[in-house]
Amino acid sequence: MQSATIEQQAPALPPLISREILFGNPERTSPSLSPDGKYLAYLAPDDKNVLQVWLKTVGQEDDRTITADKKRGIHIFFWTYNTDELMYMQDSDGDENFHLYLVNIRHSQTESGNDIVRDLTPFQGVKAEPLELDPKFPDQVLVAMNLNNPQKFDVYRINLKNGAVEFDTENPGNIISWNADAEYQVRGASASTPDGGYDLLYRETTDKDWEILRHWGPDDQGGAVSFSADGKTLYIEGSHDANALRLIAVDLATRQETIIAEDPQYDVGQIMIHPVTRVIEAVAFFKDKQEWQVLDPSIAADFAEISQVRTGEFYISSRDLADKNWLVAYMTDDGPIYYYAYNRESKNSTFLFSNQPKLEGLQLASMQPVSYPARDGLTIHGYLTTPVNIPAQNLPTVMLVHGGPWGRDTWGYDSEAQWLANRGYAVLQVNFRGSTGYGKAFLNAGNREWAAKMHDDLIDGVNWLIEKGISDPQKIAIMGGSYGGYATLVGLTFTPDTFACGVDIVGPSNIITLLQTIPPYWEPVKAIFYHRVGNLETEEEFLKSRSPLFFVDRIKKPLLIAQGANDPRVKQAEADQIVEAMRKANLPVEYVLYPDEGHGFARPENRLHFYAIAEEFLAKYLGGRFEPMTDIPGHSGVIK
Prior knowledge:
Number of helices: 13
Mean pLDDT: 95
Low-confidence stretches: 1-10, 108-114
Strand content: 25-35%
Number of strands: 36
Shape: globular
Radius of gyration: 25 Å
Structural class: alpha+beta
Oligomer: single chain
Strand order of the largest sheet: 28-29-31-30-32-33-34-35-36
């Protein structure tokens, strides 16, 4: 009787937050200072709700668009070291064959508002990856492209004045990343090796042969970070002789290594490097939350000042070349990202804007770091988000599984977690074994454990929720994208009684067909996949035993699948084949396909359409709230 009284007295859930606020375009985001500090560029929607690059003069209100993307929206842009030029990336309907575009902002000021936009990499079916820009070489950009061979990325030097593309450095076939020195010469590289490991490559000059500075085996990680300004030191990350990735300086004359930053359990994360002096100034370790370690005393006072401006975590998102002005982003778990301009001379911070002002003042849920022991004793970390205003007791729940799987969830605002909590669900995000950031022992504990111990960690999380009284055992769903989509399919096939339903977003259903259809440029890392997942050439039966497609007959609970037709990583066939198998077996499956999307949904119209379907689906099987579906002009979703 007493619990019923408490239940009756408990406050109600806060009002429904519209999907438009949670999943629509940001109002303004990603501000970036021009090298001379005169201009501020940022992303914001135009009058057709397509994300464009906008520009304003610092201190004035002359904001204007300087790009004219027609459909997909621009998500990645950066300044060159010429004040009148910036670049952006764009692919075609999610195919990930990104082109690099150059925008001249001066031209737009003088000629009727029509900007000059030049495609610097106008090659069909080719993926461009910008490598480095250097202030001493403002008219050049180094770009890796798979132009000569779809499987490998050579280095090209592009002239920003005339657009000339010059071949710079050949990839022998196994190099997966490149590093240029302070003279803008490619002298460092990381190469994959047949054992699933990596070689750290170095050459003294560009006319010398590559030599191997260090080899990491398949159970270690490592790679080059940056050269010092004098070219005598190569900064690297490596987990050799330690559990976690450390930041290390390698003396290129003596080959002696000096540890710069380390943590016994957590991998080194974000690294802040001065763009001119190339001094490493600070590093971050993402533990339960982000922790900065300041390495350069000259910025210690700045970090102390910045940390007092507002609560939450921060990072330096942009700076001018004189290093007098920084843009600082502040992140919290229950609100938008707040951007400030910080002046290093006056130590003053000026608020610019938040990316989603409509989130301000809403009753948003907090994200709590949690941990629990797996059945074999390994400590599993994660984050729990529960609805505002109601006790965290016997709640319908969503297990929200991250992609990768070699990635991790972090503390901070998460639109999916907020959406689910607002609808009345507890949300558990688990960094299962195989997740990155927790050192190599934890990463390697996930080797060959797809649909095995990696899944056990999720089930142990479910049991932890039930033991704590947080979750209603009959109303727990599993949901995720990419590997998280695969985990959803595993949940419904390998543990068919655990979950009430599942939502799979661009998840593979068959590891064999997944590995057979990876993009050609993933060929150099195939050995790493074979080591961490299983060998396609010698272990087909093993991979079959870990593929949900072959266990469809076990499914008891409803499934929703969403897929992008142009996904280069997880092909549409991965969704098609399990939907077909389920329908043949007369099992409950809903399927929505987006013809103009890839590995995830970039267009807000498509996001809004998908989450409307998903929340109605979850409400049907878990009993949470949902905002009724309204007409969403422009979405491409096809119910299959």
